[in-house]
């Protein structure tokens, strides 16, 4: 039968076919060795990469720590040497910060094409600094400026001179506009003015704080630094909840924990600084330092007072509690609160700005720390707040009664005297110092005459 195979007949391919694994059994040892070599090399490369990353982090940590101590030592050296050295540091911070902020928005290629734009930015800075620093000198050193033959005309016409300089720059800007570069030039114009306001303007008030007394400069700066340190410590210790997306590492727990610690540290630091006339006195001697000190009548906020609580129902009769502390320590609570809850948003603003331009730092002015602006982002708004708070709630009036009488007697006309008399009468009535009938009598008398 053809459908059945014959016995004894062997077909050449009738045996079991060998599998692929079996066919490659002879070559598998060499492939295994090759694969092992590749894996070993990959592991070595990974180890080398990890070692390289570790070395970079170690070097960066050492560099950052070294420059931290250098900055601290330099700052305290300038602080103890006197007001002028601190003013020099603030001026340098103004210039470098302005340079860093302007640089991130300037295209290198376009800047080369339009040299006038870069020059004009520095011109705006010079005019702004001349105006603001001139205002400071005239206000705090009028007893020197107003008697000098050269400085008197400059002081008298200071604002007009500054306005003229600004108009010159504005006209130059408009006359140098070029087709194809208009968007870039106007962007630079707006960017420069924003930088002048946020950096030069706010640091101007920090400089005024120095002349009002070093405590108004040092205390706000110390509170911001302290808050930054405790925010980091509290954050890595028990931080869980993210605070803001702009700074993913910031936590609510670290934010609030730093607030409590900053308040406690601020009250303690204020207690220490109040003991030194060098810190609490205004700059009445620019040659003074920590060793020579200053002499002045202390502001009442530095004089300790005792507050006694009223009798409480749930305590025994005649049981009262009292606390003795300087009013400045109460003010410090509000300063520390601002430094903890508001000033960090200056840092968040800077973080958003850097993300907009996709940069890590504003510059490389401080090795291991980035730019000056990276370290000063919270200090600007804190110094501005300290100036406003001081002149609103703490500063004493510098008006001398005898000077006021001299001005009234020698510089006002008879009609001005009548208006002044009526104004004072109404003011005293509003404060319940005199009867309102007196105002009516004065008005009637002035009308008849």
TrEMBL record:
<dbReference type="InterPro" id="IPR000374">
    <property type="entry name" value="PC_trans"/>
</dbReference>
<keyword id="KW-0812">Transmembrane</keyword>
<feature type="region of interest" description="Disordered">
    <location>
        <begin position="1"/>
        <end position="49"/>
    </location>
</feature>
<keyword id="KW-0594">Phospholipid biosynthesis</keyword>
<keyword id="KW-0444">Lipid biosynthesis</keyword>
<feature type="transmembrane region" description="Helical">
    <location>
        <begin position="157"/>
        <end position="177"/>
    </location>
</feature>
<keyword id="KW-1208">Phospholipid metabolism</keyword>
<dbReference type="Pfam" id="PF01148">
    <property type="entry name" value="CTP_transf_1"/>
</dbReference>
<feature type="transmembrane region" description="Helical">
    <location>
        <begin position="122"/>
        <end position="141"/>
    </location>
</feature>
<keyword id="KW-0472">Membrane</keyword>
<feature type="transmembrane region" description="Helical">
    <location>
        <begin position="189"/>
        <end position="207"/>
    </location>
</feature>
<feature type="transmembrane region" description="Helical">
    <location>
        <begin position="61"/>
        <end position="78"/>
    </location>
</feature>
<keyword id="KW-1133">Transmembrane helix</keyword>
<comment type="similarity">
    <text>Belongs to the CDS family.</text>
</comment>
<dbReference type="GO" id="GO:0004605">
    <property type="term" value="F:phosphatidate cytidylyltransferase activity"/>
</dbReference>
<feature type="transmembrane region" description="Helical">
    <location>
        <begin position="255"/>
        <end position="274"/>
    </location>
</feature>
<feature type="transmembrane region" description="Helical">
    <location>
        <begin position="333"/>
        <end position="353"/>
    </location>
</feature>
<dbReference type="GO" id="GO:0005789">
    <property type="term" value="C:endoplasmic reticulum membrane"/>
</dbReference>
<feature type="transmembrane region" description="Helical">
    <location>
        <begin position="213"/>
        <end position="234"/>
    </location>
</feature>
<protein>
    <recommendedName>
        <fullName>Phosphatidate cytidylyltransferase</fullName>
        <ecNumber>2.7.7.41</ecNumber>
    </recommendedName>
</protein>
<comment type="pathway">
    <text>Phospholipid metabolism; CDP-diacylglycerol biosynthesis; CDP-diacylglycerol from sn-glycerol 3-phosphate: step 3/3.</text>
</comment>
<feature type="compositionally biased region" description="Basic residues">
    <location>
        <begin position="1"/>
        <end position="16"/>
    </location>
</feature>
<keyword id="KW-0443">Lipid metabolism</keyword>
<dbReference type="InterPro" id="IPR016720">
    <property type="entry name" value="PC_Trfase_euk"/>
</dbReference>
<keyword id="KW-0548">Nucleotidyltransferase</keyword>
<keyword id="KW-0808">Transferase</keyword>
<dbReference type="GO" id="GO:0016024">
    <property type="term" value="P:CDP-diacylglycerol biosynthetic process"/>
</dbReference>
<comment type="pathway">
    <text>Lipid metabolism.</text>
</comment>
<feature type="compositionally biased region" description="Low complexity">
    <location>
        <begin position="18"/>
        <end position="30"/>
    </location>
</feature>
